[in-house]
Amino acid sequence: VRKTSAGYDETTNSISWEFEINQNGCNLENLWVEDALDVSSQVWTGGICEKKDLILTAYKRNAVDMPQQDEKSRNRVVKYLTREDAKVSDGDWYTVYEHEGKQVFRLHLKDLKADQYYRFWLQTTVTDSSYINQKFTVTNTASYWIQPGGEASAREVSASQEITHSLLQKSVVPFVYKDGTARDYDFESHTVKWKVRLNDHGLPLTN
Predict the structure, then answer these.
(1) Which residue, among 115, 118, 103, has the nearest Cα to 1 in the 3D structure?
(2) How many CB atoms lie within 10 A of CB 80?
(3) CA distance linking residue 158 with residue 131, whole number of Å
(4) Which contacts of 111-116 are long-range, i.e. CB under 8 A and separated by 24 or more positions?
(5) Which one of 42, 92, 115, 145 is most buried, counting C-beta atoms within 10 A?
(6) How confident is the model over 163-191, as a mean pLDDT?
(7) Is the model's pTM score more than 0.85?
(8) Among residues 139, 111, 95, 97, which one has the least CA distance to residue 4?
C-alpha cells in the first residue's frame, strides 16, 4: 500500500489522498487498510461519509498513470458495511466509525491477485484552524496488514500536504477609456486604482 497527497482545494478547505493497492504484484488472501483521523485536525468527507460505493480503479502496472479504460470491468466496487457487519464479513467491504476521538476508515479486500493493481481516492476537510495564521502541514498516516488480527504488527504509510491561504489579495483595477482601451495607470490624473479582497473563501476569522 502506498499513500500520497493528491492536492489541496483552498475553496473547500479539503485534501484529496491517493491510495495505491498492490503495486508490487502480490497474491494476497486478505488485505486490511486503516486510516484513523484525529478529528481536531481533519475529518473524512465525500462519498464514504454518504455510504456510497468505493471504486478502486484498475491501473496498468507498467504504465501506472494510465487507468485500464478499455477494461472497466476490472475496476473493483467495494460496498459500505456497518462496523458490526464488517466484523463477520469475509468479502470486500469498507466502513467508517468513531473511536476514542478519531474517525476511522477501514477497508478489507479479499483474494488480491498479482495482476490486480488499484488506486482510489479519499477526501478530508481540515478542521485545525492553525492554517488561518500560518503555513500549516497536515500529515496523514494509514496502516495495513495481511493476517487476521495483524493490527499490532501493521506497516505504516504516511503522506503530507501543506496548507496555505491567501487571506488578503490586492490587484490593480484598470481604467477603461471611451475608445475601449484599458490602462492600469491614468496619465491625466496620475492615479492607480487598487482593489483589496479580504477572506475570499469565508474562513472563520475572529481577529
Answers:
(1) 118
(2) 18
(3) 20
(4) 111/28, 111/29, 112/21, 112/22, 112/26, 112/27, 112/28, 112/31, 113/27, 114/22, 114/25, 114/26, 114/27, 115/25, 115/61, 116/21, 116/22, 116/58, 116/74, 116/76
(5) 42
(6) 88
(7) no
(8) 139
